[in-house]
Amino acid sequence: MDEKIRTQDWPDILLEQWSDEARRSPGWVQKPLACDFIAYAYAPSGVCFLMPIVPLQRAWRQHGRLWIGLYGQRRAQNVGYTSVSVPVPRGVLMQAIVEAMFVS
After folding, report:
1. CA quadruple 8, 13, 14, 16: dihedral sign
2. In 12, 33, 69, 86, which residue has its Cα 20 to 30 A from 4's Cα atom?
3. Interior CA angle at 97 toward 91 and 100, to 5°?
4. What DSSP letter does each residue of 52-104 carry, written as one string?
5. Cα–Cα distance for residue pair 98/37, rounded to 1 Å
């Protein structure tokens, strides 16, 4: 399990598209991960979303471009690199994950 913790309660989940934008290094929503779940927590409220990796990444492949268009991108300047994330509303993301678990 991997964990992400936000220091404020936001209505969205930041999906890391690029861990290093200049080098085009995929973020955790796009690259293979050595875990089955991501625990995404909001420290002030203690709320945590447990997201299964395979359906989460499938939802990203299905909707990522749309979400970038709808919700935009957020860049974080780090020492030596810039990461890029997409703030997807929690309900939208959870519904997409559930739908990604069904194969027709």
Report:
1. positive
2. 69
3. 140
4. EHHHHHHHHHHHHHHHHHHH--EEEEETTEEEEEEEEEHHHHHHHHHHHT---
5. 14
Confidence (pTM): 0.93
Give the Cα separation of 93 and 101 in Å (integer): 13
For 40, 77, 82, 90, the CA distances from 11, given in Å and listed in that order, are 12, 22, 23, 6
Q: Each residue of 31-82: pLDDT tens digit?
A: 999 999 999 999 999 999 999 999 999 999 999 999 999 999 999 999 999 9
Contact 72, 66 (CB under 8 A): no
Q: Compute the distance between CA of residue 91 and CA of residue 83 in angstroms, rounded to an integer.
A: 24
